[in-house]
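User: Teach me something about this protein's shape.
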Amino acid sequence: MIDLHVEPLPENIAHYHKNHLFLLMTFKQKVLFILSFLFPYPEDAQFFPLPKSFHFMYFPLRPFLWALRRKRKQAMF
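Assistant: First, the predicted structure itself:
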């Protein structure tokens, strides 16, 4: 038995649990979950601040900002 609410979880257990939860979703839930990645996150505004009148640009910039944040995070380690 493993307590999933105690941090930090071992990497393999966290990956298995995340995958298991995705497999339990219905098709509609999976589609909505994947589409939610296209919606801008608050981290996007912190990473690349834009004036309020240009906030709509976060939608097309989302994949690029995600890739830049991942690249920067990998460079730190």
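Now, about its shape. The chain has a mean pLDDT of 89. The CA atoms of residues 12 and 19 lie 11 Å apart. If you'd like, I can walk through any region in more detail.
User: That's plenty for now, thanks!
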